[in-house]
Amino acid sequence: MLRHRGNRVLCPVCGCRFERFKDDWNRPDALCWRCGSHERHRAQWLLLERRAELLASAHSMLHFAPEWCLRRRLSQIGGLRYVTADLTQPDVDLHLNLMRLDLPDHSFDAVICSHVLEHIPDDAAAMRELCRVTAAGGWCLVMVPLDLSIAQTYEDSSIVDPSERERAFWQHDHVRLYAPDIAGRLEAAGFVVERISPVAEFGEATVARCRIGRADEILLCRPRASRSGAEAWG
CATH number for the domain including 212? Predict the structure, then answer.
């Protein structure tokens, strides 16, 4: 890391500064040399720092497909029951199918589901499940690879060849390419959705220094209606 030291870029997740970030396989200047954060992780942590009430109000959190950089930070928060989940990842607390979650209704105050839905065959079912397990008054943070240049999410179940999926959906294991209309899909699942633009939320200077893309939008979702009798796990 010493040979990359500098002050041009900042990783808010680990607090380190460098001359530039490490190149990823498909884009330059993307990965933190120390904690491995991607642009989306830096955007999420900036939001959680900027809106401190999100973590302050959460006694329990369910984190799907947790990456080490955020998992390390979130697991250290005192008073937060932090639960990790994935379908196949071996080192998580729960192995869950997002389309059919084996969890009680309204069971977590906070849920993070970042860069997962693009892999899920039935994302409508997955979104309904996310809403079902989010407690009344709680929140669910959603991010996906987003193409801001298209108006409608593109999916074609006949595309099964990995190379064709990469061409159509940006990655061989993706099953769709999301447009900004994902907000409408989440609303149809029962959420009220706030679409957070990195530039509008953090400012041009911070976005540039943390190397966050304009398409790294955060969808902050809250269950639409208050549900009586809902109690989150403490």
Answer: 3.40.50.150
d(CA 86, CA 15): 27
- Distance separating alpha carbons of residues 66 and 81, to the nearest angstrom: 15
Dihedral sign for Cα 203, 208, 214, 218, please: negative
Tokens of 161: 């060849």
Q: What's the mean pLDDT in 112-136?
A: 98
> Would 17 be classed as within a structural domain?
no
Give the range of the structural domain holding residue 96, as residue numbers without chain letter. Answer: 52-223
pLDDT tens column, 50-88 = 999 999 999 999 999 999 999 999 999 999 999 999 999
pTM score above 0.85:
yes
Question: Which of the four pLDDT bands, split at 50, 70 and 90, describes residue 1?
Answer: low
Q: Is residue 21 part of a domain?
A: no
Q: What residues contact residue 144 under an 8 Å CB cut-off, 6+ apart?
A: 115, 117, 118, 178, 182
CB atoms within 10 A of CB 58: 23
Residue 138 lies in a domain: yes
Q: 192 lies in a domain?
A: yes
- The residue behind tokens 């369910």 is 62
